[in-house]
Amino acid sequence: MLSVRSIFGPRLRSSMLLLQSSTASYSASSAAAIQAERTISEGPRNDWTRDEIKSIYDSPVLDLLFHGAQVHRHAHNFREVQQCTLLSIKTGGCSEDCSYCPQSSRYDTGLKAQKLMTKEAVMQAARKAKEAGSTRFCMGAAWRDTIGRKTNFTHILEYVKEIRDMGMEVCCTLGMLEEKQAVELKKAGLTAYNHNLDTSREYYPNVITTRTYDERLDTLQFVRDAGINVCSGGIIGLGEAEEDRVGLLHTLATLPTHPESVPINALVAVKGTPLQDEKPVDVWEMIRMIGTARIVMPKAMVRLSAGRVRFSMPEQALCFLAGANSIFTGEKLLTTPNNDFDADQLMFKVLGLVPKAPSFGENAEKVYETEEAVSI
Ligand code: SF4
C-alpha cells in the first residue's frame, strides 16, 4: 500500500480513505484507478512509460472519467473553470504547411491575410474579454517564427505589457521563438507561451513538414528557461491512431517540468485544407484525452479548446468532470467558430461552475488578490 503523502494538501487523507474503500473491489482491474491513486499519493511524475499512459488511456471510459475526476478534485478546485480569450492579432498568410490550418498560405480556404492589428484594436478586444469574464488573454499571430519581425515584435511586447497591467494573464502564440525573444517576452510580463506539439513524434510528419518536432521542443525549452509558463497540447482528429494520442501525452508528461497548461483540441475541419474531409471526433475521445492528461499531469490546466463548439452542455459537463478546467470564450478561436457567449454563461450557471481568477505566481498574486471573481 502506498503511503498517503501528497502535494495536494490536508483534504487528502480522508478523501484517499474514501477513494480506497469505494474502489477497492475493482481498482486492480483498471490502470486509470491504479495510476490515479498513485498520482494522488505521490504527486506529479515525469518518468511515465508510454505503456503506462496507454493503459490509462485504454481503461474503461467511465472508470477513466471517474478517476480523472478524483485526481482533478485533489489538485484543483473542481468548480473553477478559467475563461480565456484567444484573439488572432495577425491573421493568415503563414508560410508553414500545418495541414489542419486555414491560415497557411499554401491552402485555398478563402481566408484573407491581414497585417498585425493595431494597439487600439487589441486593447479594445482585451477590455471586452475582461468584461466578459476572461482572466487570460491570448494573442495569436500566423507566423513561422518571429525572427526578422523586429517592429511587429516590439509592438507585441507593448501589447503584452498593457494587457498584463489590466490584471489579466497574457499568453502569446507567435510560432517558433529564439532564446532572446523569450527573455524579452518574460520582461514584458508574459504569463505563458503557447506552442503545441500537435501529435506524436511519429505521426507529426504527416501533419506538418516545414518545421520539425525537435524545433517545437526547442521553443518550449526557451520558454521554460525564460521563466514563462509553458502551454502545449495537441489536436485529435488529424487522422492519427490512438497510439499517437498516447505518444503526444507521453512526450508532454515526460518533459522535465510538465506544461502548466495543456490544450486539448478537436480538429475543426476547414474546407480547402488537406484535412477538410476528416470526420469529427466524438466526445468520448475527448474524454479519454482529458482524463488521461489529468491523471498524468495533475497540476496542469487542461483546456477544452477547439472543437468545443460541437459539444452539447452535457457533453462538456463530462469533459469538466474528467478534468478539464479551462475553456476559450469569445466568438472565434483564431479563425474558426466558437461557442456562444450566452450559452457559456448558462452552462456555468447550470453546472455550478465559477470563473477562475487570474494567477501570476506568488508575489504578483498579492497585487490582485482584492479582485473578486465575477460570479455568474
Ligand atoms: S498553425 Fe500556425 S504555424 Fe501552422 S500554418 Fe497555421 S498559423 Fe502557420
Automatic annotation (TrEMBL):
A family per Pfam: BATS
Domain of life (superkingdom): Eukaryota
Record note on cofactor: Binds 1 [2Fe-2S] cluster. The cluster is coordinated with 3 cysteines and 1 arginine.
Gene Ontology biological process terms in this record: biotin biosynthetic process
Cofactor dependence: [2Fe-2S] cluster; [4Fe-4S] cluster
Pathway(s) the chain acts in: Cofactor biosynthesis; biotin biosynthesis; biotin from 7,8-diaminononanoate: step 2/2
This enzyme's EC code(s): 2.8.1.6
Ranges where the Radical SAM core domain occurs: 79-308
Keywords: 2Fe-2S, 4Fe-4S, Biotin biosynthesis, Iron, Iron-sulfur, Metal-binding, S-adenosyl-L-methionine, Transferase
PROSITE patterns xref list: RADICAL_SAM (PS51918)
Binding site for [4Fe-4S] cluster: C94, C98, C101
Record: residues binding [2Fe-2S] cluster: C138, C171, C231, R303
Gene Ontology MF annotations: 2 iron, 2 sulfur cluster binding; 4 iron, 4 sulfur cluster binding; biotin synthase activity; metal ion binding
PANTHER family, per the entry: BIOTIN SYNTHASE, BIOTIN SYNTHASE, MITOCHONDRIAL
Family that this chain belongs to: Belongs to the radical SAM superfamily. Biotin synthase family.
UniProt protein name: biotin synthase
Organism: Juglans regia (English walnut)
